[in-house]
Design a protein that fits this description.
The protein is mainly alpha-helical. The chain is built from four helices and no strands. α1 (4-23) runs antiparallel to α4.
């Protein structure tokens, strides 16, 4: 299954939107920006190739989006509880992407 890592990143993105909204209230502007960053991370993870020698491309893409969430959250001067939850979920998503082995490449017909 070559899309498993993208599915993990997608689940992390959905959870980063749902969990803070359910526990800390509606998302503010930075919270929505974080969701857009994580959605872009999902696209990056999906598009990163499973090429021999580049086995960490998907992990790097997920980590970049998680770090971008931390940076975006720190821009407004204070970090809300919803943003903390989003940072934790983004980090766990990146760890999940790294934990799943790369899928094999499709055989040429």
């Amino acid at each position: 299954m070559t899309v498993a890592k993208a599915v993990v990143q997608l689940v992390a993105t959905v959870l980063a939107g749902l969990i803070p909204a359910l526990t800390a209230g509606p998302l503010d502007t930075i919270g929505w920006i974080n969701l857009v960053i994580l959605a872009a991370g999902t696209v990056m993870v999906f598009n990163a190739a499973n090429v021999p020698g580049w086995s960490y491309a998907k992990l790097i893409a997920a980590t970049v989006s998680a770090v971008a969430v931390v940076l975006a959250s720190s821009l407004d001067g204070g970090i809300s509880s919803a943003e903390i939850i989003q940072m934790i979920v983004a980090g766990l998503g990146a760890l999940g992407v790294g934990a799943i082995p790369n899928g094999g490449r499709a055989a040429a017909a």
